[in-house]
Amino acid sequence: MDGNLEALIAYYRPQIEMYRKFWEEMSGEGVKEVGLYFVDGGKWVVVVV
Fold this sequence. Notes:
The protein contains one helix and two strands, in the order αββ. The protein has one helix at about 5-25, and strands spanning about 35-40, 45.
């Protein structure tokens, strides 16, 4: 997974950005942190959007 980590983050970043935007618009609350949890590696990765 580690060798592919940057590619996975780049692949999922647009989806995460969309979720963050929708959450902020629907709830009126800001999002403090977004990220991906990789089950195979048991790893949380913060994604900068």
